[in-house]
Amino acid sequence: MADLFGGWHILIVLAIVVLLFGATRLPALARALGQSRNAFKAEMKKGEDAGTAETPAKADSTSATGDSTTTTPKS
Questions:
Q1: Distance (Å) of CA 38 to CA 27, 31, 48, 51, 75
Q2: pLDDT digits (tens, 9 = 90+) for 17-34
Q3: Distance (Å, rounded) from C-alpha 16 to C-alpha 21?
């Protein structure tokens, strides 16, 4: 199981990909994949930044009894 993707397996998969998509479309596919990855990373970073910014707001919105289900609406 550890040798699932050995050297020959990767070469065979690459040959099948070239046969299916053609050598002319592969650069466009790689570029689109890279752009998608960059957009995903940027959105994840925005989410992390927003998550750290919301933490104090959630702590302020809890009631004195410790009920954390009530929150203030976002503006």
A1: 16, 11, 15, 20, 29
A2: 889 888 888 889 889 999
A3: 9
Quickly list DSSP for 31-56.
Answer: HHHHHHHHHHHHHHHHHHHHHHHHHH
Give the dihedral of Cα atoms 10, 8, 13, 4; nearest 10 deg.
-70
The vertex-6 CA angle with 1 and 33, nearest 5°, equals 105
Quote the pTM value.
Answer: 0.45
Provide the b/e sequence for 58-69 (b: ≥16 CB within 10 Å).
Answer: eeeeeeeeeeee
Tens digits of per-residue pLDDT, 34-44?
A: 999 999 999 99
The residue whose two tokens read 């699932």 is 4
Measured CA to CA, the distance from residue 29 to residue 53 in angstroms comes to 36
- Quote the mean pLDDT of the chain: 77
